[in-house]
Design a protein that fits this description.
By secondary structure, this protein is mostly helical. It has a domain of about 60 residues: DNA Binding (I), subunit A, CATH 1.10.30. The protein contains 5 helices and 2 strands; from the N terminus they run H-H-H-E-H-E-H. A two-stranded antiparallel sheet has the order 1-2. The relative contact order is 0.14. It binds zinc ion (ZN). Zinc ion binds next to strand 2 and helix 5.
Length: about 100
Amino acid sequence: MAQSPKTNKREQAPNQRATRTRKTANARGYNHEWRRARLLWLQACPVCVECGWIDVPAKMVVDHILPHRGSRLLFWNRSNWQTMCKRCHNKKTGRGE
Ligand SMILES: [Zn+2]
């Protein structure tokens, strides 16, 4: 379990935390347009590139191969997208990539 200490700290104000998380995600480009695009992507490419796991879109992640860091170009460039299961994606983000 790789829980960051930050997460525990914010448990004092759960409502505030939820709003904040959603706002941040939207600010980074994860809006309804993204959700639709990722769903189409995962329906077409449901296989995890790391371990070959196949699951429903809700359990899979569209990963940016190169971290987009706010770049719309990298964010929307589908040659920068790959399908990962949540497990492999957590491993990748846990490595700080
Ligand atoms: Zn996987």
